[in-house]
User: What shape does this take?
Amino acid sequence: MSSDRLIIRLSIFVIFSGLIGLYLICMFVAPPFVKLAEIDNRYIGKTIITKGMVSKSFLSKSKTLFLELKENKKKISVVMFNVNKNLFKKGDSVSVKGEIHIYKGTPEIIARDIKKI
Assistant: This one.
């Protein structure tokens, strides 16, 4: 009977230790930073962080935010869903965290987070 309690306590300890370890890993593992000019097909399906200057900004009636970022001569479209207010205007420098997808043959970012920098 006491060995059963020991096994249960040990199991609970191992479970909580594992959950805490997973939480800490998730908090400290960040996606890689990729320069706008380097974004290409090898990043499709991957989450990255990039930055650039807003050259176009539009919020649709369906609460979809469309941005075009540029850095030097490179441009990329950024889409973010369920946005209540467009906080970005032409000329703003922003940091974008999101996943790279192909839309009409061109890479675009489906954003999770956009911040002014």
Remarks:
- The mean pLDDT is 93.
- The chain is about 25% helix and 40% strand.
